[in-house]
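The protein record now logged underneath.
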Amino acid sequence: MRTLYEEHVGGLYSYVLRLLGGDRHRAEDVVQEALLRCWRTQDLDDGQSLRPWLFRVARNLVVDEYRLRMARPQEVDGTLWLDELLAASDDVDLVLSSMILKDAFKSLSAKHREVLYETYYTGRSTREAALVLGIPPGTVKSRLHHAVRALRLALGVVETPSDPPAGARSRLWDREAA
């Protein structure tokens, strides 16, 4: 069996891998099954080349597996409806999130609200927001930093060391605008 394996596994595996479109796990299974069938049914000592027989058996195994999959209906485990339900978009979550954000936004000062609106909602850079609001860019950055921190506090979001700094998004936009 070891000699049979060493002589034929490389070419047979490559052939089956191409037939299966690169599925390595299934290719290994088919090669193993073909080699086991050869070992069980063929006379290994007669000196006859087993390569054509092995390749034909491997091809037949791949074809049989394909036909079996096509003939049987797709198996389901009974939880498919749950996955579809969870994947479906629900407007209720969007409405609730917007209500919570609206209440948190109301708790901010007017200056913080305008800076957040100009940078995050309209997508303006710090410099553009500064021109619209008529204040220096440094003031926009400072207000934005404090506004984001206050908004996080109002939403109950706890900052962790891995979170980016509150004004990181606006600084990134500044670099892009430059």
About this structure: The chain is about 75% helix and 0% strand. The mean pLDDT is 79. The longest helix spans residues 51-71. The radius of gyration is 32 Å.
